[in-house]
Amino acid sequence: MPKGSNVPVPTAGLRVELGWGSGPGVPDADASALLLVSGKVRSDDDFVFFNQPTHASGAVRREGKKDAGGQVTDTLVVDLARVEPAIETVVLVASTDGGAFGQVPGLYVRVLDAQQGTEVARFDSEGATVETAFVLGEFYRRQGAWKFRAVGQGYSSGLEGLATDFGITVDEPQQAAPPASTTPSPVLSTPPPPAPVAPPVTAAPPVTPSAAPPAQPAAPVRLTKVTLTKEAPSVSLTKQGGTSGAMRVNLNWQVRKQFSGWRSKLGQAVAMHADLDLDLCALYELSDGSKGVVQALGNAFGALHQPPFIHLDGDDRTGASASGENMSINLDHQQYFRRILIFVTIYEGARSFADLDATVTLQPLHGAPIDFSLGECTVPSTVCALALITNTGSDLVVQREARFLVPERGVSPQRTVDYAYGWGMNWTPGRK
């Protein structure tokens, strides 16, 4: 589609892919959406982005990011039938993190019919330079039907500037309060005289109904997120304000490439998505000294509202699911945690993590999301320690591990990670 053109879209479930090429020196990017009335959001709740991935109506949901062979997609699921009648426009946005779109090759937005998978519309955005945010397209109502318009409007002020233009209140670092007056106040050399004392009241004043407390303004939107790296591997959940509610842990993966030669058998095993089964797991140690594991193997799915306060949502047996593997940790009970080690094992379908691209995201209910990639595996590993969460008593710290381990002959992946981190548990064979 050329810029400014429009096309009718079905009033049904749609998948919106914002895509671009990855590579050395290419900044990360994110998809987001704004639901507008007369060109503005009604409140900050009408902003769907990485810190607020689902609209309250369920009409727009951020599904997540994937990198397949150097092509990154960040997907939004849009159900136009569920968009509230007051909403006139759904704006589709891409924003960069750590660079400008002039460094991002092949930026596009693609609209797909979610049921049939057919392409409804596509717009390729070209000629970007210093822009750090783009309105790539929008859905809008016209005579009772929905259309998609290719927009391609760039902002050099980033997601913050774009969101502010649409009426979002963005959280900013606190500034020192300015002086109340530019004229200096005189300095008193003697204390002021005491205020006169009011005479005693002999009759009780009439009782008046107490006024309702003023409504508290909604907290401004936080546009920050945290990416852990080898150079900066840890973050404090306490300082991020993310120590309550259920924290969602997501593992998503893609096959990096096909390959040949001595690794061809491994490549065939990895490439067969239907046979590749990765399991997200967690070793835990509670404050009373009790230890255990949460995993699909042996149906040890845990529990969210009773010990261990960790629950594995399900078992993605194929890897084809866009949501990947998910686990929830109830941070309302953080006082019971001593340490939690999140790890992943290959249950079947591959002999190693080689040539898999995997991303881990920890999304607290409050505070910024924390994500990191595992990097390349260069050893015959079937188990990888992902992240270690430690309660120091005054702080809850997330440490990126991204540590590929190689089990010794006859030793299970679970026992291997136990030995590496000194958990000291007894293991028996299990099935799922």
From TrEMBL:
Locate the coiled-coil region(s) and give their ranges.
none
For this protein, the record's InterPro entries field holds: Stress/Tellurium_Resist, Tellurite_resistance_TerA, TerD
Instruction: Give the matching CDD domains.
Output: TerD_like
Q: Where is the TerD domain?
A: 2-166
Which stretches are tagged as biased composition: Low complexity?
173-188
**Region Disordered: start and end of each range?**
173-218
Q: Where is the composition biased (Pro residues)?
A: 189-217
Please give the family membership noted in the entry: Belongs to the CAPAB/TerDEXZ family.
Put simply, this protein is called TerD domain-containing protein
Query: Native species of this protein?
Result: Streptomyces flaveus
